[in-house]
Amino acid sequence: MTTQVTKGIKISVKTNFEGTFFKNYKMHYAFGYTITIENQSKDSVQLTSRHWRIYDSLNDVETLDGEGVIGKKPVIKPGESHTYNSGCLLTSPIGAMKGHYNMINFTTTENFRVYIPTFKFSAPFALN
């Protein structure tokens, strides 16, 4: 598990290999990840948007921006957490992701970034 804390918000990431399949005459590697966002600060916060950089060892870096996570903009009170599952497809068996969440602190009305640590993907057969 990979973890990082920014301004009292702890991000923990666990990854898993889901399998392979063909799409558009190309082999794709499916990876899943579970992210837990834990509020260790004294203020309630809300996740408003996300920014991802996806690294595929055989492709260019892909950048994704979007509202919330999996259709939600969770409010996380002090001592509480929000966990969600998602995934990505790569054209190689090795890759990584990193990024940040944009959040707002309800006490100070400050907008701030919470960094998501780099987490790696590797199919079990790809590394000896």
TrEMBL record:
Q: Which GO terms describe its biological process?
A: error-free translesion synthesis
What are the residue boundaries of the ApaG domain, all occurrences included? Answer: 3-128
Superkingdom of the source species: Bacteria
> Which Pfam family would be a valid example here?
DUF525
SUPFAM superfamilies (UniProt xref): ApaG-like (SSF110069)
Q: Please report the name of this protein according to its UniProt entry.
A: Co2+/Mg2+ efflux protein ApaG
Q: Which organism is it from?
A: Maribacter flavus
